[in-house]
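Late entry, evening session. Most of the bench is empty. Finally got around to the prediction I had been postponing all week. Sequence below, unchanged from the version circulated by S.P.
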Amino acid sequence: MNDARHPATPPPSAWIEAPQFEWSGLVGEGGPQVRFRKGQTLFSQGDPVRQVYVLEEGRVRLVLLSAAGHEQHMAIVGAHGMVGECGAFFDGRHSVTAIASSDVVARPVAHQVLLAQMTQDSQCLRQVLWLANAKLRVLATQNLLLSQASATQRVAHHLLQLAATYGRAADGGTEIGIAFTHQEMANITGLSRVMVSNVLIQLQSEGLIGKVKAHCVVRNIDGLRQRAQSV
């Protein structure tokens, strides 16, 4: 039960940025790097898990495919994060498809090496558990949003998550510290890019959000909460 004096931590944003995690004990110094261009697949749902990837640069989106071939975008993992680890602990097959959301630099790690490192390195174990927990919480939130929320509610909710997770004080509001594209927002909300653009334009016209260079600024966080209040 939550103590009223210590409110629950807000759900992590679907844009998962690991907090400066240190993976040197796992990947070593000067280990091999692999590069993926935007749109390239790192691994596909159902593939055997032979390796996981520690992300050094860029973002990777995790996509669940239905039997009919429909895509549901689950989360976007950024630098210092890891993708592919979940299947290593279950049935040995990837449960999602991982696609580069931007150009990506990563370090591959054999899944058996990851499992061995987790048994002897408590920091590595804590970081893997943090990422797994973040992805589980994002999955639960995504399921609720996609089943119950309108387009405006979905976008407003993700903006609030981003502001809570990556927000920093700025003139006239809270600046979201990571940049995102309209296409990324469309992927994660299950909307078209045009619909996302229209919602963002509407929220900006109402004075709820603004833009400073490549970053979104939440100018009226209470008003934005009202737009997402039914979620």
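Two things to note before I forget:
Helices lie at 24-27, 85-88, 111-120, 122-148, 151-166, 182-189, 193-205, 221-227.
The first helix runs from residue 24 to 27.
Will write this up properly tomorrow.
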